[in-house]
Amino acid sequence: MKTKNLIWGLALSLTFLSCSKNDSNDANVSTDDAKASTKIDAMNDDVSNIVEEQESNTYSDVANGKTTESTNSMLSNCATITRVPEFGTAIIPGTTVIKTIDFGAIGCTLSNGNIVKGKIIITYVYEPDATSHTINYTFENFYHNSIKFEGNKTFTRTMITTTDNPSLHPHVSMTLDLTATLTNGLVYHRVGERTREIIEGYSTPAFSDNIYKITGNWITTGPNGGTQTSTISTPLKIKMSCVAVNKPLIVSGIITIVRNGNTATLDYGNGDCDNLAVLTVSGNTYNIVIGN
After folding, report:
1. What is the CA radius of gyration of the chain?
2. What is the pLDDT of residues 112-154, one digit of tens each?
3. In angstroms, rounded to a whole number, what is the distance separating the alpha carbons of residues 72 and 247?
4. Which of 134, 210, 281, 288 is most solvent-facing, going by the fewest CB within 10 Å?
5. Which of 214, 247, 215 shows the shortest CA–CA distance to 74?
6. Any idea which of 89-98, 179-188, 237-246 has the lowest mean pLDDT?
7. Are 37 and 57 in contact (CB under 8 A)?
């Protein structure tokens, strides 16, 4: 069984910011809200994918698990990975492992084209016989496509069987508490949770055949104190094969957003590898181009 990351990869905490006209107290979600949100969601998915991959690599190669090969990883060779205990050291069960992924101060391009800077610091306990693993991670001067992120996330990975995938496969539940500072200076705080499972591709060594199912909900607080809730009302689907076609990987599913009693939806389509989603607000529809 391969040690692949579950892409939390573009959908894992999909949320909508409220930044229309720089006023977080606006009644409705706007197209600007949706565009800003997809950029932040892309960070969440990329980082979650990288973190899970690095934790999983410890179990496939206890002494030297630090894959950065682009064919099997979101990381590229411009990322430097260090570990405590240091690489080359065998780890015994019960050991706390700290991995630091340093992307440098200039910018490092991931395999999907997104550009990151700074560090992600991962902490977990090495428990090879456990059926469930918990991983925590934080940011240090971290930027994703020029958006700065601060805060922490925790996820628990459990091996299960489901109707969508009757073979034993990872199911990940995540909690989120982070702050995003956009390039225009607006600051947003977001808390919530999501789940993700790989429904196809886990039994093969290739990365490109992975398909993921995402559910979850969250609350976003804007710079002026206004809040909105986002819920994945139809599970999101991510296809890693879409990397070769378009960087955005979410191909279907719907997110429902409620703000000041008003409801909007973001529909990711019918499964095609495109970079479009449709935002519906007050009966009006708008095409949203996803990507950096």
Report:
1. 18
2. 788 999 999 999 999 988 889 999 999 999 999 999 999 888 9
3. 16
4. 134
5. 247
6. 237-246
7. no
| Distances, alpha carbon 229 to alpha carbons 1, 36, 116, 249, in Å | 37, 15, 27, 23
Q: What are phi and psi of 41, to 5 degrees?
A: -65, -35
Q: Amino acid letter at 134?
A: T
Q: Please, which residues have CB within 8 angstroms of residue 277's CB and are 6 or more apart in sequence?
A: 34, 38, 250, 266, 267, 268, 269, 287, 288, 290
With a CB cutoff of 8 Å and minimum separation 6, the contacts of 261 are: none
The two tokens of residue 246 are 């378009």
In the numeric block, the tokens 């706007």 are attached to 30
The one-character DSSP state at 86 is: P
CA-to-CA distance for 172 and 195, rounded, in angstroms? 5
Q: CA-to-CA distance for 235 and 39, rounded, in angstroms?
A: 19
**Residue 281 contacts by C-beta under 8 Å, 6 or more apart in sequence?**
28, 29, 30, 262, 264
